[in-house]
Amino acid sequence: MRPTIAWKDGKVIMIDQRKLPLEESYVECRDEEEVSRAIETMVIRGAPAIGIAAAYGVALGVMNAVPTEDLEREFDRVVQRLSRTRPTARNLFWALERMKRVHQENKLLPCGALGLRLLREAQAIEAEDLETNKQIGSFGKDLIEDGDSVLTHCNAGGLATAGYGTAIGVIRAAFEEGKKIHVFVDETRPCLQGARLTAWELDRLGIPITLITDNMAGWLMKGGEIRRVITGADRIARNGDAANKIGTYSLAILAKYHGIPFYVAAPLNTFDFGLRTGAEIPIEERPGDEVRRAGGCAITLPHIPVRNPAFDVVPARLVTAIISEKGIARPPYGKSLKAWKDKT
Fold this sequence. Notes:
Elements (H helix, E strand, L loop, with lengths): L4 E4 L2 E5 L10 E4 L2 H9 L6 H17 L7 H13 L6 H17 L4 H30 L8 E4 L14 H10 L5 E5 L6 H13 L3 E4 L4 H6 L5 E4 L3 E3 L4 E4 L2 H10 L4 E4 L5 E2 L16 H4 E2 L2 E2 L12 E4 L6 E4 L2 E3 L3 H11 L1
Parallel strand pairs: 4-5, 4-7, 5-6, 7-10, 8-11, 10-15
Antiparallel strand pairs: 1-2, 2-3, 8-9, 9-14, 12-13, 15-16
Helix pairs in contact: 1-2, 2-3, 2-4, 2-5, 3-4, 4-5, 5-6
């Protein structure tokens, strides 16, 4: 399998995650509009991967600009277009902010040279994400014991990042260390990222898995079949409240009730220290047909009203620990996360 996202011959190449696991095909993006649409339609998804895609989209936008244009105005237009794609993932806005700083520092360069400088920055963001994920795995693997059964939700693996994973990176690192672990993968309605993507990834890695529906988790916890829960995150407030794929909040409540550790794994660029609590995190509402249909087939009447929030927020009091490339943070998160921020 080629990388989740990569630059090749003046194009951004992404694996089309909508078609997995039945078809492994790739989408080529030649400008920022195609990158934006790929993010919006979930050709690419997962907070870190979205950030990488946005950075490449900025580089493409400038490289495609006509030298006679007002380059600063064109740069702003490109950034604004990409910023409207998905509102919840902090990594998207972090990457755009980083690209804006590079632009500001190099805006007097000729158009071609500026585009190349932005491209190098996007490539650096991609490379750094891979290393960051491995560091997260290195810290997080100590939280998983030999013989553990672990539940994960949605997809926080290589497909959601530059190639290693956050929550799945922790599982990978524990497995690569030789720990005998078993992973329960829930389907993750409505778009089935667990069934389609996480199960596909873990199967390729040779990690033992069992696929379950979302509503089986509580019963399996009660029976002692699940011993830990680990998820990724799309945005984390400075008090430790964490937004993740819809359904994560329910799992956190179930884990708390059954006395099961609930871990969140995410890079520092997922943290939004400007937000006091998760109540301030914007929650994306996606098209109703994602709920009305499954695998391209209608499962209800087409006129039925739908709510489809893509994310929910897990209160910090339900989170046992947060894992980043800086280590493992534990409550009180106001103190432990501030220590991470102060070191950056």
